[in-house]
Amino acid sequence: MASKIYGKEQFADMVSARLLTPEFRDIFCDEYTVFPGFCDVHVHFREPGFSYKETISSGSAAAAAGGYTAVCTMPNLSPVPDSVEHIGEQIKIIEEDACIHVYPYASITVEQKGERLSDMEGMRDMAFAYSDDGKGVQDEALMRAAMIKAKELGKTIVAHCEDNSLLLGGYIHDGEYAKAHGHRGICSESEWRPIERDLKLVREIGCAYHVCHISTKESVELIRRAKASGVNVTCETGPHYLVMDDTFLQEDGRFKMNPPLRAKEDRQALVAGMLDGTIDMIATDHAPHSKEEKSKGLVGSAFGVVGLETAFPVMYTHFVRTGKISMEKLMDLLVYNARERFDIPIGEDFSVWDLNKEYTVDPDTFVSCGKATPFAGNKLFGQCMLTVCDGKIVYKRV
Fold it and tell me: What is the mean pLDDT of the segment spanning 181-192?
């Protein structure tokens, strides 16, 4: 029997009963810990269109290896899920190949070009929510129209907030490292200015709104104030933004992501936002690329790192073991807040962990096709032993 089951009473009763069945009884030892299935509202599984980077099959298997039983896939695919026909192609693959629950986003705009709205109404019952992640919606009038339609349909706008006019060819944070090494920087305003614009629209329209991967201190404060005034907003950040800043940068593509690792002050503000509830959930922005695409340093590598297989160990090692947050708080960030915000059920989903296991992160052992992680070589605690989705074993550590 596991030593501890984290979960609400009904969940704990279900797991306790399952652990006593012959299928599971011999797997467990009294040092293992059981958690509800983690939920990530921001992943890229690259299929259809870019299956050389990742597939629904490999991505969902990687998620299961990290204790996730529900993930939500972003729409930067080919074809873009901007119509019933196009999102249907992705759903067909999900139904055939996913080993966990995979919920697809529909795009906000046709082909994510930011020119006209996608068939939001037609895709209502097929889409998890609406996002143009990877691209910010630049036109305010178009975003207003999208919010009005989303409210009418009872759906959430999930925004990648980035002002293209402020990017100026940047690819890492416009901070001390960029200046010292002659790199082009991405200013913080490129993120927080669109958030400021969108929050004004949400106040006007009253739709449900969620902000992707926030990385700046200004973003935290804008969302904190909006929540205090009753705006219907939630947000996420990634483990790497909470643990690393631009002082961790190396001339290696595994440190290149969008938004970039920001300054120490931004990281500290993100941690404070996590502690006070401004930040609702941890999302990995799992974004696999080929080895070649990530081998061109900070300048030439593609944006994006993988994170599904390290998210819990990173958060557990840096925040729970150090006493900065409780395990219950981490479960809110990894499980309950996302599921409650987006109405994603848990069911008979759980994962089993050896929290005493210390190991060095080796990307070559990842289930994901993507291997680029800023945590390579880091020592972490917590190893997933088993993941169960809908009562079926979907991952078992050999």
Answer: 98
pLDDT tens digit sequence for 125-137? 999 999 999 999 9
- Biggest alpha carbon–alpha carbon distance for the chain: 61
Q: Could you tell me if 213 and 283 are in contact, meaning their C-beta atoms sit under 8 angstroms apart?
A: yes
The residue among 208, 255, 257, 252 whose CA lies nearest residue 237 is 257
Mean pLDDT of 276-290: 98
Tens of pLDDT, residue by residue over 55-101, are 999 999 999 999 999 999 999 999 999 999 999 999 999 999 999 99
Q: Where are the beta strands (DSSP E) in 74-183?
A: 101-104, 156-159, 172-173
Q: Report the alpha-carbon distance of residue 248 to residue 196 in Å, rounded.
A: 29
Instruction: Give the phi and the psi of residue 286 in degrees, each rounded to 5.
Output: -55, 110
User: What region, left, alpha or beta, does residue 374 occupy, with left being phi > 0 and alpha being psi -120 to 50 degrees?
Assistant: alpha
Residue 245 appears among annotated catalytic residues = no
Strand partners, 157: 130, 209
Contacts of 122 (CB under 8 A, 6+ apart): 83, 84
Which of the residues 132, 285, 332, 349 is marked catalytic?
Answer: 285
Chain position carrying tokens 């969940």: 11
pLDDT at residue 315 tops 70: yes
**d(Cα 288, Cα 54) in Å, to the nearest integer?**
6
Distances (CA, A) of 282 to 13, 112, 259: 26, 25, 15
Measured distance CA(301)–CA(374) in Å, rounded:
14
At 252, list the tokens. 């290696």
- How many Å apart are CA 248 and CA 140, to the nearest integer? 35
CB-facing half-sphere around the CA of 170: CA atoms within 13 A: 27
Query: Which residue shows structure tokens 């483990």?
Result: 239
pLDDT at 2 over 60: no
How many other C-beta atoms lie within 10 A of the C-beta of residue 148?
15
334-351 confidence digits (pLDDT tens): 999 999 999 999 989 999
Contact 69, 389 (CB under 8 A): yes
* Distance separating alpha carbons of residues 224 and 194, to the nearest angstrom: 16
Torsion (CA) 46, 48, 49, 52 in degrees, nearest 10 = 50
**pTM for the structure as a whole:** 0.96
